[in-house]
Structures are given as structure tokens and as C-alpha cells.
Write a structure and sequence with these properties.
This protein starts with 11 loop residues before the first helix and ends in a 12-residue tail after the last helix. The chain has 269 residues and is mainly beta. The protein has two helices and 15 strands. It is flat, with a radius of gyration of 22 Å. The longest helix has 21 residues.
Length: 269
């Protein structure tokens, strides 16, 4: 019996069809179930660090014309199977003008009156409790250099030569008991705002880093979010998967050494 075996010809059309179905399945999951997200800025410190990777669920608030992973639907108001987020939820959203992916915390819902007074959040005419807690100690890394005009004053060098940032931190507690940590390091114009009533179909969002967050305190025309339409919500942040400190390179060893100990942290507490 001959050892020569006829080699089966590759059916390239079939291979291409299988790849197409796989890509379609991935897009369907990203659109309807969940998608990964990367934290590119420090606007949500101390809750989220630059370099955090996390999972965003797409279904909790229903779906809108911005839900598909590919921007292919015409602009439409409202949401299908829609529900409002809860105050305190961390959500990924599309910015109102550029439609980039941003991440912020929900502060005000339709009908709420929101205002900042001397750095304290007020909701519906009442101050939201804000209590100072221990400083957040953050190691200085390539993607978290603690060198801005606001936070550079809190950068210290430890006796062993490590550079750290010791950032003033407060705990806010919303009506209903949801609480989280925020940074407030300087007196800035956004610490005082006019009282605004959140209209129907809109939400008010803020970053936990109150000194470094373009959010609903700023109009969309000047780079903020304004009162964001609910259809611009992409999904709810659920948990981190892993985090990198920005020191990765082509050297595979750095893919390990750059990892932070931030595995699977819940963002729903």
C-alpha cells in the first residue's frame, strides 16, 4: 500500500465563510452582551487607574442606535427595552459630539436638581455627604506619572527611592446608600456650578477625579458632556479583568512585570 496520501485541497471559500461567521458572532456579542474597555485617562481615579481593562455589559439599560459595535444606524432617540441606570452606576457612553467612548459615574437622573458648591455635590437641595478618608497611595508609573499641575504637589519619594502619589481622598454617599471614593485636590472653577434640573431623557454624569474630568459640569460644545441623552449610554461597567502600568515593550518579560494586582475587581459595589 502506497504511503503517499493525496492532500486534500483547501476550500478557500469555505474558510472565508467560517471566518465571516466568527467575526459576525464576535460583533453580535459586543453589540448585545458585553465588550472589553480600556481606561485611557485618570478621570475616574481612584476607582479606575489608567491602564485598567474591564468588561462592560451592554444589556442592563436596553439598546440604542449607538449600541452596535459598528456605527451603522441613523440617529434615533430613546432606547429599546430601555431602563434608566441607578445613581452611582459606572457607565461607558458615547460623547455627544465626537461619539468617542468615555466612562463616568451616574450622578443625576431625570427630575434631579444637581449642583456643586465649594467642591461638594448637592442633590435635590441637599448636600451629599463627603467625608475625608486616608490618602490614596498610588505608585508612579509610565502611564500614571502624577505630574499634572494639580497632583504634582502630592508626589513623594519614599526612603527606598520609590516615587509615589499621596492623593487626598473623600468618600461620597448618594441617597440610597451607594458610596464611592473621589479625589478633590484643588479649588477649581468646576467646584461651583449653577443648579440644573435634569430633563426627561437625560442624565448627569461626573468623573470620580473631580479635578480632572470633563463631564456634565461642562457643556458639550466646550469638550464636556452636558446633560447627556440616555441613548448615548453604551453599557454598565462590571469588573476589571487586568491592568498594565504602561511599561510594556517588545520584551515579553515586560508583559508580566507591567501587570498590576487589579484582577477582577467589582465595579458594582
Amino acid at each position: 500500500m502506497s504511503e503517499a496520501v493525496a492532500k486534500k485541497k483547501t476550500n478557500w471559500a469555505e474558510e472565508a465563510w467560517q471566518l465571516f461567521l466568527l467575526a459576525l458572532a464576535v460583533l453580535a456579542v459586543h453589540t448585545a452582551v458585553a465588550k472589553p474597555f480600556y481606561i485611557p485617562s485618570g478621570s475616574m481615579l481612584p476607582t479606575l487607574l489608567v491602564g485598567d481593562r474591564l468588561i462592560v455589559s451592554k444589556y442592563p439599560y436596553g439598546y440604542s442606535y449607538l449600541s452596535p459595535s459598528l456605527n451603522m444606524l441613523p440617529r434615533m432617540p430613546g432606547r429599546l427595552f430601555g431602563s434608566l441606570p441607578e445613581r452611582g452606576d459606572i457607565v461607558v457612553l458615547k460623547s455627544p459630539i465626537a461619539q468617542d467612548d468615555w466612562i463616568k459615574r451616574v450622578i443625576g437622573l431625570p427630575g434631579d436638581i444637581v449642583q456643586m458648591k465649594d467642591g461638594q455635590l448637592w442633590l435635590n437641595g441637599q448636600p451629599v455627604p463627603k467625608v475625608q478618608v486616608a490618602d490614596t497611595v498610588m505608585q508612579v508609573t509610565p502611564n500614571s506619572d502624577c505630574a499634572s499641575m494639580v497632583d504634582a504637589q502630592y508626589r513623594v519619594i519614599t526612603p527606598d527611592g520609590t516615587a509615589e502619589c499621596h492623593l487626598p481622598t473623600y468618600r461620597e454617599t448618594l441617597p440610597g446608600g451607594r458610596s464611592y471614593l473621589v479625589h478633590d485636590m484643588a479649588a477649581l472653577p468646576q467646584d461651583n456650578t449653577e443648579a440644573v434640573i435634569v430633563p426627561q431623557g437625560r442624565i448627569f454624569l461626573m468623573g470620580d477625579n473631580r479635578d480632572n474630568s470633563e463631564d456634565s459640569r461642562f457643556p458639550a460644545e466646550s469638550g464636556g458632556l452636558g446633560l447627556l441623552p440616555v441613548e448615548n449610554i453604551v453599557g454598565r461597567a462590571e469588573f476589571t479583568t487586568f491592568s498594565l502600568d504602561g511599561s510594556t515593550s517588545f520584551n515579553p518579560v515586560t508583559w508580566v512585570t507591567a501587570l498590576r494586582d487589579r484582577w477582577f475587581l467589582s465595579l458594582r459595589d
